[in-house]
Amino acid sequence: MKTIGVIGAGSWGTALATVLAGKGNKVRIFDVDEKHLKSMEEHRENVDYLPGVELSENISFAYTNEDAVKGADAVLFSAPAQHFRSALNNTIAYMKEDVLIINVAKGIEQGTHKRMSEIAEEVFAEKGIADGMSRYVVLSGPSHAEEVGRRMPTTVATASSSRASAETAQDLFMTDRFRVYTSDDVIGVELGGALKNIIALGAGISDGMGFGDNAKAALITRGLAEITRLGIKLGATAETFAGLAGTGDLIVTCTSMHSRNRRCGIMMGEGMEPEEAVKKVGMVVEGMFTAEAAYELARIAGVEMPITDAIYNMTIGKITASEALISLMNRERRHELDSAEQN
Question: Is the pLDDT of residue 152 over 90?
Answer without folding.
Answer: yes
